[in-house]
Write a structure and sequence with these properties.
Length: 223
């Protein structure tokens, strides 16, 4: 019988972990933690050894969402997607939210535990790389490399070699296509002189850095 590897954020709800392994035959648990409560991790490790389930702590530092996405990228490199599950219920509220977001963006199966019931979330198999044309990805990459480069949309247009109308289209979108702002990948601030400065959001930076895993084959975007 094939067994699963389960990603679980560290929190106080160990019952959720035990119910998860009761529902899904498990060989390994990746326990994501922020460096604290390691005594809880040791306690869990001893209990899981009784079931011959390996516990692999994965520490994240700094920003929780960024750390969670980095941890998922690392784990995905080690484990086949179809044998990988995410148990969001073992963490605190922030850990649950961050792990669920990482599961959705990576197209992984996730479940939550309520009482003694295990319920699956719908799998959202999409990729931002499939939704973004090369020019939008180029804008994100430029803003990552030079976050303080531009005090206006005009300067960003000049520095990237795109015309101002094209830059405005990619940033703001139109009635038929979303721009990077509405996609939640950049944010715009209007300065005192009415100039629009564009900066990456947290998700935009993760995508620009490749933390949200790029698919093996990129489908050509047409907008």
């Amino acid at each position: 019988m094939e067994k699963y590897s389960i990603i679980a954020p560290l929190g106080d709800n160990f019952d959720a972990i035990y119910l998860g392994i009761r529902e899904f035959p498990t060989e390994k648990i990746y326990l994501i933690h922020t460096g604290g409560n390691l005594s809880k991790a040791e306690e869990l490790k001893k209990e899981l050894e009784k079931f011959r389930i390996g516990l692999h702590p994965v520490e994240i530092r700094g920003n929780l969402l960024e750390g969670m996405f980095r941890a998922f990228a690392q784990i995905k490199r080690e484990t086949s997607d179809d044998r990988l599950l995410v148990n969001v219920s073992s963490g605190d509220k922030m850990g649950m939210s961050a792990s669920l977001a990482a599961a959705f963006v990576n197209g992984l199966k996730a479940f939550h535990v309520e009482g003694d019931r295990v319920s699956m979330f719908p799998v959202l198999k999409f990729s931002y790389y499939r939704l973004l044309p090369e020019r939008k990805l180029a804008i994100l990459g430029f803003l990552k490399d030079q976050p303080d480069c531009c005090s206006s949309l005009e300067e960003l247009s000049q520095r990237t070699g795109m015309s101002l109308p094209l830059m405005s289209y990619h940033i703001n979108g139109n009635a038929k296509a979303e721009g990077l702002i509405t996609q939640g990948l950049v944010q715009a601030h209007v300065g005192p002189r009415g100039k629009t400065q564009v900066m990456l959001t947290e998700l935009g930076r993760l995508i620009a850095e490749g933390i949200v895993e790029r698919p093996a084959e990129k489908v050509e975007a047409r907008n």
